[in-house]
Amino acid sequence: MKYLFSLILFLSSSLLYAGVLSTEELDKLTDLLSDQYSVLVKKSISEKPDDSGRFIYVTFTIEGFSQGNNHQQYLAVYISELKKLAEPPFSEYGEPKYRLVGFRNICNSPLLGYKAGSLVTTKGEVTGVCAPLKTGRAQEKVFTYRVGRFGVY
C-alpha cells in the first residue's frame, strides 16, 4: 500500500508539467537561478510557442530564496533546433533540441505577480502584464522584451 501511494504521488507530480519543452531543460535553468533553499513552483510553469514555432516562451516562479517567504518570476525563451545534413540539400532531421536563448526576471516588485495568460508575442517582441497581488496602490505594469536569436533584450 505504501508503494502504491508513492507511485501515485510520483505520477501526479510528474504530470503537473507536460509541455513541449522537457522538464530537464527547465530544471537546469532553475538550478542556476536558485539558491540551496529555493524551489521551482511546478504549477506556475506556463509555455507559449510563437506563431512561427521557432521560439518557446516559458514563464515560471521560484520561491523561498534564503528560506524566506518570497518569490521571483521569470520569462525564459528557448529555440528549437534540428540536426542538419552535412551535404546539400542540408535538410533537417531528428528530434528537436531546445537551446536557451535567454531569460529575464519579470514583475520585480513583491506587490506584483505575473498575470497568467497575458503573454503576447509579435514580430520578435514579447509583452506581458504584472498585476497587483492585493488591491491597493499598486498598478498593473506591462513588460516588453525584444527577442533575438542570441538573446532577450
**N-to-C terminal Cα separation, in Å?**
52 Å
- The class by helix and strand makeup works out as alpha+beta
Number of domains: 1
Largest sheet: 5 strands, antiparallel
Helix content: 10-25%
Can you give the mean pLDDT?
A: 84
Q: N-to-C SSE series?
A: HHEEEEEEEEE
Query: In one word, what is the shape?
Result: globular
Low-confidence stretches: 1-18
Q: Tally the helices: what do you get? A: 2
Topology, number of strands: 9
Strand composition percent: over 45%
**What is the alpha-carbon Rg in Å?**
18 Å
What's this entry about, in short?
With 153 residues, this protein is of the alpha+beta class. It is 16% helix and 48% strand.
Task: Walk me through the structure.
- The protein has 153 residues and is α+β, with helices and mostly antiparallel strands.
- The protein has one domain (17-152).
- 16% of the residues lie in helices and 48% in strands.
- It contains 2 helices and 9 strands; from the N terminus they run H-H-E-E-E-E-E-E-E-E-E.
- The chain has helices at 2-14, 23-33; strands spanning 39-49, 55-63, 71-84, 92-106, 112-114, 120-122, 125-132, 141-148, 151-152.
- Strands 5, 6, 7, 8 and 9 form a 5-stranded antiparallel beta sheet that branches. The protein has a 4-stranded antiparallel beta sheet with strand order 1-2-3-4, with helices on one face.
- Strand 3 (71-84) and strand 4 (92-106) form a beta hairpin.
